Amino acid sequence: MQDVLFQTAAGPVRLRWTDSGVSAIELPQITDREARAAIAKAGPIELPPFVRDARTAIERHLAGEPQDLSFIPLDLSRASEFHRRVYEAVRALPAGSTATYGEIAARLGKRGAARAVGQALGRNPLLLAVPCHRVLASEGKAGGFSAPGGVAMKARLLELEGIARGSLFASRDPGALPFDAGEAVRHLRERDGRLAHVIDRVGPFRLRLATMQTPFEALAESIVYQQLSGRAAASILSRVVALFGPRRFPRPADLAAAPEPLLRGAGLSRGKIAALKDLAAKTEAGVVPRLSEFRDLAEEEIVDRLTAVRGVGRWTVEMLLIFRLGRPDVLPASDYGVRKGFARAFRRRQLPAPKALLRHGERWRPFRTVASWYLWRVLELPDL
Asked: Rounded to whole angstroms, how far apart are CA atoms 195 and 118?
């Protein structure tokens, strides 16, 4: 095993590696002066390309330029099977999102193993690459952090990813909505008697956010799924993802560089390849914002920026706004399910035109997302 010590904006970092990949990323408890002396004593070191790339990305990340570190190959051969599964689940958490120890345990099919997950992360040898700072305790608690600096360092790492210190531990559930669902339902009941009847029949509002995808991944998946059955699209997407293993999902740079015959071999059409490459290019250019940047953008600005991507229409962006970002006031007026649900709920013989639906929906502001969810659920009722 070899190692290299280097300075970053957050202090010294030691990176260890084997031929199989990076085996440890540490924040040693030494002073900057001690680190400089150790670096000078070691002298120049010829780094393998994957180590050099990892070092550069870590330096940039800790300097305040958030990096996707999922490209770093890891050597987890010394970890137990359970620990490896925990690390892989945590590595799948995108920057700007969090999960609780209990949720990680549930994703592993080990409900009730939150403490075991916490113990595994307490022994995590790969800080940043296995982003244990994104895993928090329940009931608004920060949880532990074994690296030097403790919870303060945990907060700092999350701040780099767009989670403000003032609200850092305000909502631990990554699937929780960023608005008060109870207030939204009360508002809709007061403003629309017919919709109030629908709410009574459907029951509690149960929308949960999809938390495991970055905006790039969500849009790439939507492009692959266009005009295909769910099973066929899932099969093609799994083959595309397998081309870039062991990554959980290809990065924009990966898709941009992939030869068209390779992607065609996975089942993608030429049109979808062109759309995915355009998405990759616009993501790298900053047209597609990072998840943390969406918080400061209005819905229409998000629509304008994302529909500039080939193959991404307004409906696709509206689904992202609802199911990924949890925006409270989105009414996808062109959606067939919403229109049909409205016709059934309001006893119309014909589907409403999108403009007519938007006019009626003005009374639902600022919670049109919640109204849309109930209209979708109408189609699941045997009668109304």
From this structure: 44
